[in-house]
Amino acid sequence: MKEVCGIARVTPHILKSWEKKFPQLRPSQNKSGKRLYKPDDIQLILKVRDLLAQGTQDLEIVRILEGEVSSPIIESAKAKNEVQSNKDTTLFHEIKGELLELLDLLKK
Known about the structure:
By secondary structure, the protein is mainly alpha-helical. The protein has one domain: Multidrug-efflux Transporter Regulator, Chain: A, Domain 2 (Orthogonal Bundle). Helices cover 71% and strands 4% of the residues. It has helices at residues 2-8, 12-21, 39-53, 58-66, 72-107, and strands at residues 28-29, 35-36. Strands 1-2 form a two-stranded antiparallel ribbon. Strand 1 and strand 2 form a beta hairpin.
């Protein structure tokens, strides 16, 4: 736990409270009860830390971790991608139109 706290830059107390609040943060344990964090567990912890730093509410974090709701960062990236896709489609149609006009000229 100490190493994971160092990576996430949080105290063990905070990490334990997150494990109680967010059901997805349940690392496996060995026979003596010591927590065993996998890389995926650490990624979730870092995601929770970042979402909390952005002011995301606990309930929304639970939903994000469950995959029910996208984070604002993901939504923003999707919107930018959609705008770029629309620009690409428009450009494609413009080029296609110009090429068809050239083809007509070459046929004459």
